[in-house]
Amino acid sequence: MTAEELLSQDFGTIADVIRAHAVEHAAKPALVDAKRTISYNELDALMDRIAAALQRDGVGKADVAAICATTSAEYGATFFGILRAAATVAPLAPSSTPESLIVQLNDSGAKVFFLDAQLAQHMAGVLDQVTAKRVSLDGSDAGVPFEQWLAPEGSKPALHQVDPDQGFNIIYSSGTTGAPKGIVQPHRMRWGQMRRGVYPADAVTMISTPLYSNTTLVSYLPTISNGGTAVLMPKFDVKSFLELSQKHRATHAMLVPVQYRRLMEYPDFDRYDLKSYQMKFATSAPFSAELKRQVLDRWPGGLVEFYGMTEGGGSCGLQAHEFPDKLHTVGRPLPGHDIRLIGEDGREVAQGEVGEVVGRSGAMMVGYHNQPGKTSEAEWYSPDGLRFIRTGDVGRFDEDGFLTLMDRKKDMIISGGFNIYPSDLEAELAQHPAVLEAAVVGAPSDAWGETPVAFVALKPGATTTADEVKAFVNGRVGKTQRLADLRLVDALPRSHIGKVLKRELRDGYQPASPQAS
Prior knowledge:
27 strands, about 30% helix, 4 domains, 5-stranded parallel beta sheet, 16 helices, about 525 residues, Luciferase, domain 3
């Protein structure tokens, strides 16, 4: 059966699709990094050796193997090799604390742990607590060297039928708001994402965010499932990204907003030949209308923003190049996605009103690994019994069905009984000519319960004072929205995919004097 025929089916596996691509265009590059290029035929054979070695080491159907390392061709192939063994992948973030990584490994139940020298050094104090077999992807002494661990050339694994609801991967939340939660994404969910006709067979996709991120996987997986080429970057760097895009005639890229901003700020951006680009994608963090406009004006090809959650549920898409008057929104629900807004009472709100975003689609997590209580908290059921995933985001649909996000529900500030949306204040801060980026959080207030406080990073070379920026904003907003304090910072703290870590700002804030407002 051809890859195209496989992808036309209601369900299948990426391991089978890669096998079909290896037959149809064996020499075509599948994975490219700075050190090597792996063709589809080579990838297929390497997946067999990985899967056979895993099964030799006791990894059975639906068992877990974990990966925590710098992005490389070996990492990319290992991800698929685990799937060919009918096992579940747990890609972990090297940016997690060593203690958190131990928690994640134990929670996942991983039997084999793929790592590299850099990660081993990071975990040096707790590495002896790792009970899984360690395999070093870079050949270091962090574990059994990868080439030595592999099953012999020509090895074939035992093949198992994969169930649609079986775990494809477990992605752990960052843990910035408590213990990390393992989000189990089933094969059914990933198959739906891989079948979308977004990435054509001739796609050359820049992979510049880490492979442990769902943001990356929703680009990486369909690129390979549709027979394209993935260009893997170990770490994002503006100049390298542009050079590789030009060298490989890149057609697609998934970037987070902070990467787009850094690219637009790069003095030599317009000197690079990027005419090969067909489409660029964005997700994971707020993407300002002004920045979208810059990308559309200066970078060939279309621009699509996706809004959704790692947990799945409903997603929206904004074809920015088609709807330039809707750049302040995250678009409309994708086909087959049911997105609704609910109030504090759990009932749907009226058209035009603000509510929490809940969504339902074929792409939904099974639940949080080993945490049924947390799973229940993340679910909402409609009056007719349909299961939705709660996003924790607050938004409003306009008359054309486009969704505008207001804020994270937990980030909304209630001051003196009034709801204050930080995004409104952040939008006003962005109007100041010296402001590069800003974040607003709620700080405790004896008088009002909470009061808004801003953290602002200035543009390079800009000269102004915190009092001047604060006065600028407070002169543009209503009395109940006025900032109680404003702090200038070098940069806002961000997660590995560019989300501003507001909890860190809240937790680290100490008022200079008792707040009067």
